[in-house]
Every structure is written in C-alpha cells, then in structure tokens.
Sequence to fold (360 residues):
Amino acid sequence: MFNGIAVSVNNLPNLLNLSRPGMAQFLKSLDEPPARAKTLIQSIHQRRVVDFADLGCSRRLKDKLTTCASITLPLLLQEQRSDDGVCKWLLKLEDGNAIETVYIPDQDRGTLCLSSQVGCGLNCRFCATAQAGFNRNLTTAEIIGQLWWALSRVAPITNVVLMGMGEPLLNYDAVVPALELMLDDCAYRLSKYRVTVSTAGLVPAMQRLGQECPVSLAVSLHAPNNALRSQLVPLNKKYPLEILIPVCKHYFPPRAKQKVLFEYVMLAGVNDQPQHVRELIDLLSGVRCKVNLIPFNPFPGAIYQCSDAATIAAFQSDLMAAGIPCWVRRTRGRDIDGACGQLAGQFTDRTRRKKMLVLK
Ligand code: SAH
Fold:
C-alpha cells in the first residue's frame, strides 16, 4: 500500500484504483491541484489512456506521474463467444490468478457481469465458484479493469451487475470506488438504476451501501425459511431471514421507486414445491420487491438438478398471482460456461476447499 492506495508490481500506486475523491486526494499529496482529478479520470476511463504521455494534463504533471504512479490493467488472456452472443473473458491478474467476466447482449441492452473476488468463500452449495474455493479480494483496478476491457471489445454496455465470481460486499472498500467510477459522468456515466450489487445477504454492508452508494440491490434468497436457506447459503446462519428481510425492506428510502430484487435458484425437489411458494409469499409480504427465478445451471460435481419448466412456470404464476412481480432469467452462455454460478476462473485455492471435496 502507498498512502492507502493499492500498488502494482512496480510498487507504484495504480491510478486505476482511484475514483474521483481518491484521485483528488492523491493529487493533493503530490502538491497538485485536486481539480485535475476530473481530466485524469476522463483520460483513463473514457479515452482509455494507458500511457502517461497521452494523459490530458500538463507535461510537468505527466512527468511527475510517470515517476510516482502506474496505470496497470489486468491482461486479457482469452475471449470466448457463445452462439447466443454471450461473451466471456478470462483476465490474468498481476499475481498470476485469473478471473472471468461475462457480457450478455439483449435486444436493446447489454449487461456486463463483473467479478469482485478471486473465487468465493461463502460456500453456497449450488455454485461452481464456491467449489473452486477462494484466493483474495480484487482491487478497485481489477474490478473496473473488467469494464475497461469489455468496453474495448463489445457494445453497448447499458447495465453492470456484480454477479460474477465472489461476494462483492465482503470486498466493500474496493467495490465502492469501482461503483463510484461506474456512476461518475467523467468515467462510465452509468445510472444507479442500472448498476446492481448482488449479495448473499451480508447485512451490515448492505446497510452501509444503502447509506453511502445506493445502487440497485439484488439479494440471493434461494429459500423461504431458515432451515433450508442455511443449508443452501451458509451465510444465513450469521444473518438469518428475520434480520435480512427487514434490512431489504429499508434499503431504499420510503418513497423511492426502486425495488429490491430477490434471486431464487430453482433446484428440483429442494426449494421449488408449492409449500415453498406459500412460505415465500408470506416472507415477502410488505417488501417492495421483485423476484428473479434462476434455472439452476449445472457444473461438474453439482449435487442438484434444475427444476422442470412446468414447475418453474407454476412457481412464477403463483408469485405473480400474489402481486409479486416475478420473471424467469433466460439462461445464456451455458455452452461457454458463462451462465450464473458457472464462473470458475483459474486460481490457487487458499481455503483448501477443493482438497476437502476430494477427501469427502
Ligand atoms: N455472491 C453474490 C454474487 C455472485 S452469484 C451473491 O450471492 O449474490 C450471482 C447469482 O448467481 C446469485 O444469485 C447466485 O446465487 C446465482 N447462482 C450461483 N450458482 C448458480 C447456479 N449453479 N445456477 C444458477 N444460479 C446460480
């Protein structure tokens, strides 16, 4: 670390780690006017400058930055395109680990799904990333670097979701500056309605996000009662439904139009039965929300199967009949392992979870 900014291998602070306030502070520490932050952010994120010589600032500042900062991006290792237009990239990080990013084009929009950690430590039973274990948090540069790269390869990117590898709210300090850059008019100019953080339910960080950077919120619910949810999403033991649901209810201010999105993966015979719909309707009564049913995407070693189409349709229509907006997420990019819960990247597991799975 250098003045609290993550450095790259050459040991210089990486300017890609800085949103506007951080850049202003960094300039101040160099005895430069903080107002220059605006043009530097524009150069790096809108003009995609990686060479100090091309930055929009004076020769003197360029020379100064050359000696005391870096602009370091992840490396694009591989690009895969699916028949349905989905694109998946493998990005190599400075420590040799690699993460995945997915682009999902639709008629009038393009959604980019970003990773926030190398692997994931939450161990949700139905997720391929969980099986691969956890290595570390991503830096802001590595999170925003995914958007930087994607914009150079595809268009349009109208929506960003943090639904790739990792639990974004366990990496709060790096995620928030990345969100600030996404929303900044001098950087990626996305609307807060079109940037979504998805969480397994990290309650204190959800409350903080609502106060500090209220982007759209998706919560991975997956079960309507504590017994089942604790099995599927172990984090539920720490923040059970009676704590989680009220926090979802109050995430947006009382008169805001936005609704919290609940994600619900459809697992055959596990959470897709009529009693589960009834419990879910009760649980969500009085919460301004919408529900997204996600057909389970299989992966090698998975112990679940996807509910059949008729069961999913019945589940959806029961929720709708109860006045809860609900739709089924169309599965995209399965042929390139780019669908929800299929991202694995390439990294060293520091939790030894893989080894434990083999021993079981
Ligand atoms: N940790 C965050 C974001 C990453 S997962 C979270 O839990 O929300 C993004 C979404 O994909 C989550 O809703 C997750 O539960 C879902 N998911 C994980 N594995 C899946 C699978 N095999 N099939 C379908 N959806 C899956």
The CA atoms of residues 19 and 180 lie 6 Å apart. The pocket of S-adenosyl-L-homocysteine is lined by residues 124, 126-127, 163, 167, 198-200, 220, 263, 265, 294, 296-297, 340-341 (CB under 6 Å). DSSP finds twelve helices and twelve strands in the chain. Residues 355-360 have pLDDT under 50 and may be disordered.
